[in-house]
Task: inverse folding
């Protein structure tokens, strides 16, 4: 075969059509046109909806193993947490049983000692459960309203507590509701007792420095007060029963130029998130009436004699 008769044209695989730049320009313009048309006229929305509806069973089928693995992981995690909680509850139950036995022994001993010393029996504080309805809308005060009032036997100045300690005191009583002033209110005050040193003092609300909400005032600069001390009700005011947890000392600032120390407290019972509370009867209502002063009774006959003259 002669060389001149050979076909020198390139095979179809090597044939070149439009240039790469032309193809890029055409595809870019087409993509922009389709995006603008889809944005303006939503021409591909039915297509996307049909494709999504067709692929939904496949997607759900592919998610079944993933959800099963996640549920199994959550189940075993919850089971382990439940077992740990049950173990902690058993330990706490043993501790509470021990404390209950010791409390019974101390109660019996206290009863015997009171009988031996001929002391008055301990006061039984009456209480009733209440529910917080709403918080006072005044932004400059810390007060809440409960669903118990004079119709349910709530008295003015009744202490209000929860499972952690003292929350506040009833300051207004209505027929079916009452207003409770919290310990963090700027006008709140409560007599307290340092559980470590047995020193009495008074705690006031309204302090916001260093995250504290209460302040222990009128304490000498050399007073034995330390950070972490627990303050409880002293019971000398005739309102709060003794021994209720009130606050914890978070800061003690002893200034050399001042005779008093600045002691900041944080309340033990948090009012935020509390729904149910206990309203206690003031212990002053159970105490015997105070006798009249002798001076007044002695001055009355003298006054009568003078009037006759």
Result:
């Amino acid at each position: 075969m002669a060389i001149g008769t050979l076909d020198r044209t390139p095979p179809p695989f090597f044939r070149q059509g439009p240039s790469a730049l032309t193809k890029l320009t055409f595809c870019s313009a087409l993509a922009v046109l389709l995006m603008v048309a889809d944005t303006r006229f939503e021409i591909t929305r039915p297509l996307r909806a049909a494709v999504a509806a067709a692929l939904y069973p496949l997607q759900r089928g592919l998610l079944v193993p993933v959800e099963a693995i996640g549920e199994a992981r959550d189940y075993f995690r919850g089971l382990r947490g439940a077992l740990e909680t049950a173990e902690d509850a058993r330990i706490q139950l043993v501790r509470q049983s021990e404390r209950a036995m010791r409390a019974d022994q101390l109660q019996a001993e206290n009863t015997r000692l009171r009988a031996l010393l001929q002391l008055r029996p301990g006061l039984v504080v009456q209480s009733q459960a209440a529910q917080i309805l709403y918080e006072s809308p005044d932004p400059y005060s810390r007060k809440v309203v409960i669903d118990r009032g004079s119709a349910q036997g709530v008295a003015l100045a009744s202490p209000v507590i929860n499972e952690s300690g003292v929350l506040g005191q009833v300051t207004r009583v209505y027929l079916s509701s009452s207003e409770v002033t919290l310990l963090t209110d700027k006008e709140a005050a409560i007599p307290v007792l340092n559980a470590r040193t047995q020193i009495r003092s008074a705690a006031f609300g309204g302090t916001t420095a260093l995250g504290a909400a209460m302040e222990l005032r009128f304490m000498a600069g050399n007073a034995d007060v330390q950070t972490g001390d627990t303050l409880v009700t002293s019971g000398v005011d005739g309102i709060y029963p003794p021994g209720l947890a009130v606050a914890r000392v978070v800061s003690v600032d002893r200034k050399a130029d001042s005779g008093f120390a600045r002691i900041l407290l944080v309340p033990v019972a948090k009012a935020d998130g509390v729904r149910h509370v206990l309203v206690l009867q003031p212990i002053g209502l159970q105490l015997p009436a105070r006798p009249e002063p002798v001076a007044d009774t002695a001055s009355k006959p003298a006054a009568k004699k003078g009037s006759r003259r």
